[in-house]
Specification:
The complex is a heterotrimer of chains A (278), B (120) and C (278). With 120 residues, chain B is α+β, with helices and mostly antiparallel strands. Chain B contains 4 helices and 4 strands, in the order H-H-E-H-E-E-H-E. Chain C has helices spanning 15-50, 61-73, 76-107, 110-125, 128-139, 143-168, 171-179, 184-222, 227-236, 240-273. The chains are: A mainly alpha (278), B alpha+beta (120), C mainly alpha (278). Chains in contact: A-C, B-C.
């Protein structure tokens, strides 16, 4: 008889745990649902004009229309292409620059004020100047993204390189390793968590900078789509655009970058902030 | 003689002194940036306003004289003090009508206005 | 930072020597900070002097300087700077007033924190600028629009960091004070607020960085005064001197505010309450 009781306890216990886990996974959806609810209620009660607050159905319809007509794909691809181009440039220059500066303490100190200043300037502030120099188009967007991504990756790389314990580098050197060998086997893996965090941050910021960059009207892209829609007061398209931008940001960060960061860092058995936080 | 300000501020540790100094310097700088020109304008207000206009009790008609060619910015700002009534011979001489005494005082505080003369 | 060395002089050392030494150190640091900029300006001057650039493309440093002096004496710069600073100031105050309480309220509950985290990340992914067309439809081309965008950008990191800060406070601090008879208010002022404060201030600093950039971008589109308006407006009339000068002002202003006002607050907060930070 007393054998029965523990079994009953076990099932309710594990059932509750499963329920807890389910709630834990579903809970992030709550604010979105709440906003959706408020949206529907506001449309129903206040009857705002289609321009001010398009009804949810309109927005869904316009997303569907964009997807079907292929416009969505074109614009998303155009934006992502620019992001990719600018980010790759930014990451490469950022990492290389970061290593050069990180390994040289004197240079790091001297350059610091300049880096701080241009960091304050990064992104959209370059827009007027760059329109004059580069004109409107892909080059402009790529520059702005490069600018944003570079500074973040650069600073994180410098930090990562500087934080590699000197002892490790000296140890490898004492065993006869050359400069390149030390860099490859000690500094690079040591700085890697920071570099990856920098890349992840940089891409997030780059994506946001991209939309701002497209505001002057590139030929295509999500930002352009939104601003064109603004001219015709198509708020439903504006909404759709914003939602899609946010969704891509989340997909990119959670499903693409975070796993990469985790897996690469885990492979080298290193611990980073992101690791500890997750 | 420079007073020796301690770095320690009770409860805040060794870092407090320099940080407080920076913060105060920052506030001062901010004040100068935000209000510097205004204060200068107010201090020099007397030189700006023509003696015949001082102590005006009713609306006056004036010519606002600038010592540079005004941009749209300046035209807009000047027009806030009265009714814009065209130029007075040159582009940097702006006619304003019906300027109330309060507006006249405010206008005389503006640093980038060179002179305010009565409109003849 | 020579903080580790300067004021810790032994009592035996005479005062004048110490003051002289400190003065020399300070002087050296000022020069050190300016040196890379001097080099940069020299490079700029050389490029402009040797290249055959039209005035619309690149002007000399002295030209930019002269223009800036002009703008100051004409009262233009003072007003534009004032507008921008006022905007960021108001946005900061509003974001703190609303963001911190929300952060605390949500941070109290595990599930609420987790749900809001996802939502905030989504909002962060959709930059304020993407919402700008919609906000312009709602509020027109006014300062309210600019303010809305900047507050949106600023408040997210503040809420986020307040949440993180509040959740990081070990339970036993609050319990200890409770056991001594502390009431609700006492708990907030003596445990929660100080405990979360370092994190909140970090969030504030981050937010102000994002917010400043968002402000410039918004001003470029809304065109109701402010530094963004200045540099964007100068583009149409091809006034490169104003664009470059404006950019320098934007960068310098941000660096000044960040280093002289915000960073000291961060340092003081960490110094006082930083024990709970990690």
């Amino acid at each position: 008889m007393s054998v029965q009781a523990p079994t009953a306890n076990n099932t309710t216990h594990s059932a509750r745990r499963a329920l807890d886990r389910l709630t834990w996974m579903l809970v992030p959806a709550a604010p979105f649902l709440i906003v959706l609810l408020i949206w529907v209620m506001a449309t129903g009660i206040l009857h705002p004009s289609k321009e001010t607050l398009p009804p949810v159905t309109d927005v869904i319809a316009s997303i569907h229309e964009l997807a079907v007509s292929g416009q969505l794909a074109t614009n998303v691809m155009a934006s992502l292409y620019r992001l990719l181009l600018g980010s790759v440039l930014g990451i490469v220059t950022g990492v290389i620059g970061g290593f050069i500066v990180g390994l040289n303490r004197k240079m790091a100190e001297t350059l610091n004020p300049v880096v701080v200043f241009f960091n304050a300037l990064s992104g959209i502030v370059w827009l007027p100047l760059m329109i004059t120099w580069l004109g409107i188009g892909t080059a402009l967007a790529v520059f702005l993204i490069w600018n944003t991504v570079f500074f973040i990756v650069f600073q994180n790389t410098v930090l990562g390189v500087q934080l590699v314990p000197e002892v490790l580098e000296q140890g490898v050197r004492a065993l006869g390793a050359g400069r390149m060998e030390t860099l490859r086997s000690v500094t690079l893996p040591g700085a890697l968590p920071y570099i990856l965090t920098g890349i992840r941050s940089g891409l997030g910021f780059g994506w946001r900078a991209l939309i701002a960059a497209e505001l002057v009207g590139a030929a295509s892209g999500l930002g352009t789509m939104i601003f064109d829609a603004a001219e015709y007061h198509r708020s439903d398209i504006i909404m759709s655009g914003c939602l899609i931008i946010g969704t891509i940001a989340i997909i990119m960060d959670r499903w693409l970058l975070l796993p990469i960061e985790r897996r690469t860092v885990q492979r080298w058995g290193l611990v980073s902030d992101a690791e500890a936080r997750r | 003689m420079a007073a020796f300000r301690p770095a320690r501020v009770r409860g805040f540790g060794r870092l407090a002194g320099p940080n407080l100094r920076r913060f105060v310097a920052g506030l001062l700088l901010l004040a100068v940036i935000l209000f510097g020109q205004q204060v200068y304008g107010m201090a020099t207000a007397n030189q700006r306003l023509d003696p015949s206009l001082r102590g005006a009790t009713g609306p006056s008609n004036v010519v606002v004289v600038l010592d540079f060619m005004p941009e749209r910015f300046h035209n807009e700002r000047v027009s806030e003090y009265g009714v814009f009534a065209g130029r007075d011979g040159a582009l940097n001489r702006i006619r304003l009508r019906m300027v109330s005494p309060a507006d006249l005082r405010a206008l005389s505080d503006v640093a980038w206005v060179a002179h305010i003369e009565p409109l003849k | 930072m020579n903080l580790a060395r300067a004021p810790h002089a032994p009592a035996a050392q005479p005062l004048p020597v110490q003051a002289g030494l400190a003065a020399a150190v300070r002087q050296l640091r000022g020069v050190k900070i300016l040196f890379p900029f001097v080099v940069l300006i020299a490079i700029w001057w050389t490029i402009q002097a040797t290249g055959n650039f039209a005035d619309r493309v690149l002007v000399s440093p002295e030209r930019v300087f002269d223009t800036m002096v002009l703008l100051i004496s004409h009262g233009v710069l003072a007003e534009y700077i004032s507008t921008s600073l006022t905007m960021i100031g108001i946005a900061t105050v509003v974001s703190i007033l609303f963001g911190v309480p929300i952060g605390f309220a949500v941070g109290a509950n595990r599930y609420a924190a987790r749900s809001l985290e996802g939502f905030l990340r989504f909002l962060q992914g959709v930059s304020g600028i993407a919402w700008l067309p919609l906000i312009i439809i709602w509020f027109g081309f006014t300062h309210t629009t600019t303010l809305a965008v900047v507050i949106y950008t600023l408040i997210v990191p503040i809420i986020f960091n307040t949440m993180v800060g509040a959740r990081a406070i070990p339970e036993h601090y609050a319990l200890a004070l409770r056991s001594l008879g502390a009431g609700r208010l006492r708990l907030i002022t003596d445990v929660y607020l100080p405990g979360a404060l370092p994190s909140i201030v970090v969030g504030l600093r981050l937010g102000m960085g994002y917010g400043w950039r968002a402000l410039i971008a918004a001003e470029m589109l809304v065109r109701q005064g402010g530094l963004g308006d200045l540099i964007f407006g100068a583009r149409t009339s091809g006034q490169i001197d104003r664009i470059i000068g404006g950019m320098i002002v934007i960068g310098t202003l941000y660096v000044l505010i960040d280093r002289l006002l915000v960073q000291p607050i961060e340092n003081l907060t960490v110094a006082r309450w930083g024990v709970l930070r990690k």
